[in-house]
Model the fold of this input.
Amino acid sequence: MKKHIPNAITCANLFSGCIGIVFAFNQNLKIAALCIFISLLFDFFDGFVARLLKVSGDMGKELDSLADVVSFGVLPSIILFQIAPKAFFWFDNNAILPYFAFFIAVFSAYRLAKFNLDTRQTDQFIGLPTPANAILIASIPLIYDLNIFTFETSTLSTTLFLSFIALMCFLLVCELPLIALKFKTFGFKENMARYLLIISSVILVIVLKYLAIPAILLTYILLSIVFFKRKSV
Done:
């Protein structure tokens, strides 16, 4: 019975993602975004509990990836689909632009399959983790409520929308080494980049609230580039 506890938590991740999809299709994007955050909690605790109970195995790894495809791939794609600028993007006047959002799901699935086979990603990530990408997309409807930006039918918003999707798809599968928040020891020197990321994230959340999420992601990428560049010297 003990070995099924982490898998049950993983299934809760998947269930939360499915509920989020329903809310997203019903235009309740803030609740859909909340479901991504709930899935993230389950995604963290399934691995934590598996290590605590010493019951990790291939079954849990595969189930985790399948759940993540839905919660951190399909659900974020639907959120983007719903907020996409409804611009015409073809000669026959069919509004196909929003469907480009589903490239996030495709590249997320590819990234997760790649992660399962890549032995280099035991203590670091190669490419942006799908939960990080999903959290960034989940922040969009929350920031949208602040009236800082709007998606309207215009050339500018269409370009931004497509550029954002292209950038996130690239980051998911690119050969960019990124810090993993996995502590083997708790010494400051060997975990300096991790501690800096945690401290800066807390400060950014206090100061910027929802706007902190894209700022944290940018900080994460920049810190990782500096850390691995120094490590290779």
